[in-house]
Design brief:
CATH superfamily of the largest domain: PDZ domain
Strand content: 5-15%
Shape: globular
Largest sheet: 4 strands, antiparallel
Helix content: 40-55%
Oligomer: single chain
Strand order of the largest sheet: 5-4-6-7
Bound molecules: zinc ion
CATH class of the largest domain: Mainly Beta
Number of helices: 12
CATH architecture of the largest domain: Roll
Radius of gyration: 19 Å
Amino acid sequence: MQEPAALVAAIALALSSVPAGAAGGPADPYAALAQQEARLAAIAYRLTTASARWCPAVTPQPGWILGDLRRFPEGDRMAAGEIYGRADGPFIAAVAPGSPAERAGLTRGTRIAAINGDAILPAGEGPTIRIDTAIVKLYSLDPAGAWTITDTQGHLFRMAPAPGCASAFRIEFQGAQAAANGILVRVTLALAQSIDDDAQLAAVVAHELAHNILRHRDRLGSDRSAARVRQTEFEADRLAVWLMADAGYDPAAAIRFWERHKRPLVRATSHPPRSERIATIESEIKAMAVARAASSTARPALIDTLPPLE
Ligand SMILES: [Zn+2]
């Protein structure tokens, strides 16, 4: 784990693009955003907590998506406030069904003042710095312990422990369709809206979460040659099969996604063709079935023997 200030800087760097208002879809982009954030919260909570027993890095997973009006252009903040409330401060944008956040009574629009009694006081400005500070505080907590949230009106919410694979999640208006920076998984509103089937959206989220679990950003470092990037893509496709299965999604939803989604999510030059991805996913589904037939608690081989990137 990096030290907190560097972590915040890394997240901020990766998220420096400020959304520029409406994406495609419903007339009110903020209603659309909140709708997709609710889907993402539910999917991410299932994926992270179901695989906690084999994830190498585990953190508390409250089952929320965090927001901040500062993410949005100033001219849009009144409209965004209709959905998320107008008060200043980082807020709950969505909660997952059955999650500690929901069970504690947190709802969309709750403003977070403190986590476990520690005020969220970021060093600096920036559209997401308060959210990122909250994520860093969360990562410093014991994943197996209970903790608290204090809202800006002084109410205390008791959060039950829910360890999950370490990652936060966010929906953006702009940028690559889906991406992972080691700490955060993000998908664009347009991509989420284009996928009606929750299992297919889960496949995309699981693939990005797998990049974070496998520390691909760190392991690639500055050598992002096409061959190395392709290797990370196949690794993420394979690990996502296990994440999906553990969370109760059909891992073959990833195949259905790639059969339908003709456009590469990122650069076509360094990312494998769809046919190779589908073949990789199919063979991993078979490998997982064999491993789990031998032992119902079998872990993905990738977690125990991570091959060097070459
Ligand atoms: Zn990828």
